[in-house]
Amino acid sequence: MKIRVERDGLADAVAWVARSLPSRPPVPVLGGVLLDAGAEDGSGEALTVSGFDYEVSAQCGVPATIADGGKALVSGRLLADITKALPNHPVEIAVDGSRMTISCGSARFSLPTMPVEDYPQLPSMPQLAGELPGEIFGEAVAQVAVAAGKDDTLPMLTGVRLEIGEGKVTLVATDRFRLAMREFPWEPNESLGEVAVLVPAKTLNDSAKTLGASGAKIELSLAANDGLLGLSGTGRRTTTRLLDADFPKYRQLLPTEHSAAAIIEVDALVQAIKRVSLVAERGTQVRLEFVDSSLRLSAGGDDEGSAEEELPVDYTGDAVTIAFNPTYLLEGLQAVRTPRAHLSFTTPSRPALLKPVDEDGNVAPGYLYLLMPVRLPG
Amino acid sequence: MGERGVGVGRSANLPRGLVDRFRARDGVWPDDTGCSMLHVDMDAFYASVEIRDRPELAGKPVIVGGSTNRGVVAAANYLAREFGVRSAMPIAHARRLAPHAVFVSPNFARYQEVSRGVMAIFRDITPLVEPLSLDEAFLDVSGALKRMRSSPAQIAQLIRAQVEQAHGITCSVGVAPTKFLAKLASGMCKPDGLMVVPRTEVLSFLHPLPVSALWGVGQRTAEQLDRVGLETVADVAATPLPRLRRLIGVALAEHLHALAQGHDDRPVVPSTREKSIGAEETFEIDHFDRELLRRELLRLAERSTATLRSRGLRGRTVSIKVRFADFTTITRSKTLRVATDVTQEVYKTASTLLDEQVPPGAVRLIGVRIEQLVEGDDGEQLMFDAPERGWREAEQAADQARSRFGKAAIRPASLLTQGPSRSGHDEPKPDRES
After folding, report:
1. Is the ipTM of this complex over 0.90?
2. Active-site annotation of B, residues
3. Residue A303 sits at the chain B interface (C-beta within 8 Å)
4. A276 interface with B at CB cutoff 8 Å
5. B85, B234, B368, B375: which could join B76 in a potential S-S bond, CB 3.0 to 4.6 Å?
6. d(C-alpha A18, C-alpha A60), whole Å
7. What is the pLDDT of residue A207?
8. In b/e form, how buried is each residue of B75-86, taking b as 16+ CB within 10 angstroms?
C-alpha cells in the first residue's frame, strides 16, 4: 500500500472512527483501525477508514491518491493521536512488510501493523428505514440520552428506546430517577411498519451528534430481528448492536393530571440552582418552595453551610415545598431547550413534569422530562 | 455516660462546701461572665428514658442492661446508685447489690431518637456543638450570647428547661471558661443541676480537688503522684514542671501542669463525621469457596448496615477488601447512584465486586466497607417503580426486633447455618475524620 491523503480529512476520519473503539480491547486487533486503499466503492481513488469491536462499527471515506492499493491494520488510538498532531501538509502512508510508515512534512512515523486476516468483517448496513433531518435527530437524541442510566449492571436502563410508528418517532430513556421522552413526526419507508428497539444511549448520542452536526440528512437503517441499527450520512456510516433487554413499561408512569404548575425562566433558575447547590454536599437536594408568585430555592443545613435565593414565578397551586437532586433538575432544565419551561406536580413525593413552553406561553408538545423528587426527612 | 470517665462527680470524695459554693440554687448562681463553654450531660440517660416511657417505673431503682446475667449495666438511675450500682458493672453483681431493682433491656434505637432530639435543641442555640456520646455534649455559646441577649448560665437554664419540657428527662450543665472545667462542673452538680465556675475563681474551684479530677489521670498516675505526696490539684500546680516531667513523663506532665493552672484551650469541634463504616473477618483457615465467601459478605454487610441505620447514616460507595493467603490484599469499590443503608443493596454490590473483580485464590480475610457517608436525614432520592415498602422497611423492622430480643432474633435465612471459624475481630468500626 502506498497512498497520499490530505492531513485534515485523514485526521477527522481517524478521530471519528477511533472514538468508538474500546479503551481496553479484549484482543489487540479490536483496538485497531483498518485502512483500505482502493476499496471497491466505484471511484477507486479513495481510502476507507474502519473500526469494529463487535458492538459498534464505524466507517468513513477519505479522498486519496493511490499509488498502490492494499489494506493495513494499526492501533486506532495511536493512529488518532498521530494524525491529530501532524503538521498541515499532505500525508504519505506506505506499508512495507509488517511496518506502516507515515510521512508528513518533516515528520516520520513507523508503526507496527497487525494481521489483517484476523480482523472481523464489518456488518453490512441493514435495510434503509428512512431519512431523518440531522439537526432535529441530533437534538432529540441528546434531549433524551441525558436521562439514560450509566450503570452497566442494569443494561435495560442504559439504552434509548426508539419507537417508530403512526407517522412519528418516539425516543425515551430512563434511569428510574427521571425519564425523558421526545417525539417528532416522521414518515419512514413504507416497508418498515411499527417497530421499537433499544439502542445504547452513549453510542447513539455520539453518532447522532457527529452525523447531524452539519445539518445534513441522516439515513437510519434497521434490522430489528438481527439486533442491528445503522446510521449514515456525509460519507460516514456506523452500526451498533441493539440492547437485548426489556425497557420498563414507561407509559403508565406519565402523569395524567397535576394540582400545581409554574412557568419558569429556565436560565435564571439554572443559574440560581448552580449557586445554591454549592452548599449541597455530595449532591444532596435543593428545596423548591412555591408560595404565590415566588419560588424560594434553598440548600444545605447547619453543618455544611446553607444558601437560599428567591425568584419571581408564575405559579398556580397551594404553597408547597418539593426537593430534587440538583444535577437531575439542571439536566432536565437544560434539555428542555426553550427560554421558559412548565413545571407541574401533585405532591412532594410524586413525579414532577418539566415541559418546554413556546413564545406565546403555551406548553409546547413533543418533549417531556419526568423527575422523581427527593423525599425530605421527617 | 459522663459519670464513667470522670474521677470525681460523686460528692463523697469532694471537699465539703465546694459543691454548694458554685452550684446554682433558687435561680441564683455565681458570676458567669466569660464562661462560654457548656458541658451538658443527661442524668442517667438510658434509665431516665425508660422511666419516662414506663411511668410505673417511677420511684423504683431501675437498671438498664443486658437481659442475661452475662451482660453489664448500661445505666442505672440514682435510686439504684444508692445501692452502689454503677455503669459497666456486671449485671450479676448489680443483682446482688440491688435485688429489688427493676432490670430493663436497652432499646438503643429509642435512646438514639431521644438523643437526636436533645442535640437538635443544642444546635438551635449554637452550631458549635460537639457531641461526646448519645448523652453528653460540649457547646460553645460565645456567639449566641449577643444574639440571644443572654448570659451563659441563662442559656444553660434554658437548655435544661427545654430538654425537660420536650423530652421529659433532666440534664446537668457545667458552665465554665474551658471545656475541662465545664465537664468537671456538670459531673459535680448531678443530677438535675447547674454549676458555674467563675473566671476569677477557677483556681479556688480547681485546687482543692483530688488529682484524679484532672483529665488524663488514671489510677496508675494517681498512685504515682500520691507516692510523692501530690494529692490535690493544688499540689500538682505547685510542683515545678521539671520535677513533674521526671515523675510522669514529659507529655503527661505538661498536660497536667497546664490543666492544674486552669489552662485548657481546646475549642469545641462540631460533630466529627464518620468517613466510613465497615466490618472485616479473618478466617481461621483460608477459604476458596465462593459461596462461603458470599455468605460472609452478607453477614458483614448486615453488620455494617445495622451500624449505619443505628447512626442515621447512609453511604454511596461500597468497597470490599480481600486478603489472600500470601497476604496480597486488594480492595475494589463501586459507587451507587443513591446512598443506601439497605443490607441487600450493599450485599448485592459487594458480591458483584467479588464475582467480577476478585481473582480466584485462597482467601484469608474478607471485608465490607461503606464510604461517602451522608446523614440519613439528607433526604432520599425516590424512584419511579420502587415499592412504598421494600427491603429498607423490612430491615428497620428486623433492627427493632433485634434490639428487643437480641442479635439472633432475626437473620437472613442463608446465614442460619454455622459460619466458618473466625478470629473474632469483626465489630463494625467507625473510621473518623480527624
Report:
1. no
2. 136
3. yes
4. no
5. B85
6. 11
7. 92
8. bbbebbbebebb
